Each structure stands twice: as C-alpha cells, then as structure tokens.
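Late entry, evening session. Most of the bench is empty. Finally got around to the prediction I had been postponing all week. Sequence below, unchanged from the version circulated by S.P.
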Amino acid sequence: MKVKTILVSQPEPKVENSPYFELQQKHKVKVDFRPFIHVEGVSAKDVRLQKIDLKNYTAIILTSKNSVDHFFRVAEEMRYKIPEDLKYFCQSEAVAFYLQKYVVYRKRKIYVGQKDFADLSPLIKKYKDEKFLLPASDQLSNEAPQTLDNLKVDWTAATLYKTVMSDLSDLADVYYDILVFFSPTGIRSLFKNFPDFKQNDTRIAVFGSTTQKEALENNLVVDIMAPTPEAPSMTMAIEKYVAKVNKESK
C-alpha cells in the first residue's frame, strides 16, 4: 500500500534542512511530528531524598542536553554556587557546545568524548581520583554504569528528570500510514493512550533493538528498522521503504 502520511513520535525539528522535510518534498508525503513522551524535572527536594549533595562532587558527566539543563536547574533550586574548577565531561561535541548556554567555555575545564559513552573512558581514567556525578533520567541505560564500574572510579547517579508518557487523546481518530518510534517508552505510550490499538495497515518504523523488542512484545509487525548498514538513520530507512512501496503501488 502506498504511503501518504507519516507520524514521527518526536518534536518537530528546529532546523530548516531536516532530512524529514526533504523526505516530505521528494516523495510528496505528509510528515507530522508529535512527541509520545516528554521530560519532566525532578524537584530539588526529591533529589535530596536521593542523598545527593552537589558540593560533594568534583566532576560532572553530561550525556545529553537534558542532563545539562536539569543539572543547572537543580543547582539553582538548591542555591548551589557552581565552583569554577568543577570538571565537565561531555559525551559528545553537541553536548559540550550546549553547555555554553550555562558556562563561559574558556574559563572551565571541559573534556569532550566522540559520540558514545565508552568514548569518555580514556578521559575519565585520566582523572580517576575525581568524585563524579552522573545526572540522569529515571531510564538510565546500562552502558554508563557498566563503563564507570569497569573504570573503578567514585561515581554516583542522580535522577534529575523523568521520561513521562504524553497525553495523545486528540489523536484518537487520526490515521497514519507509518508510525515512527525511537524508544520502548514511545511504544508503551501508544498502548497507554490507545489500549485497543490495532495495527491493521499501519506500518511501524523503529529505531534501535530495544524499541524493536518492545514493538514485538506488543505484537506489532515492524516494517522499517534502523539503524542498519544500508540505512544508518531513520530518515534513510523510511525513504528507502517509501520509494519501494510507492513505486510498486503506481
């Protein structure tokens, strides 16, 4: 069946040259964006209940823009004056660049990884005597804890924000040819909002093996998978699929 409409379960990209917009124009399909999940901050009071005192840490490990935002939010709520000699370990250049929203770059000690958390290992190992804080969500993956435990450093995870399922009730009567998911929580949000959801002719696109696993456990047929060697990004995977089925449906 020909693909005419796609719903991406994420916020609309802010950049004008997003591959989704190119996909839309090239294949004459309608692409909508709607976050199935969103992030909510944990209060300073709840952070204290985790026995987290920010002044006890000499280094912060930042894995995402959310971790940056919520670390500085909690610091402000706790009236914690961040010392100038605090070390920042950023998982990627994008996170390090975002950090400039809060600190004057040239006056801070900032160490930047390549992309994956494991890429930070040599940098963290070099400063293994620091006391590390890992600001995280309530759905922290195993990669960071395992890496830090293997390095045998003194570290603590602090849940500073939570991933919450969004209210999608206004989508009840809306039909899309493809639904695009990036996390297991996105799939869970679909079924929480629509317990009687039937896939029928809707194609399901998933990013990552954990999202695929969640889809299959909910008896969904996965039609589009990313990343793969042929399609390292979700947009590439969707475009490949749309080009094929729309050509066959002519």
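Two things to note before I forget:
The chain has nine helices and eleven strands.
Residues 99 and 221 are 40 Å apart (CA to CA).
Will write this up properly tomorrow.
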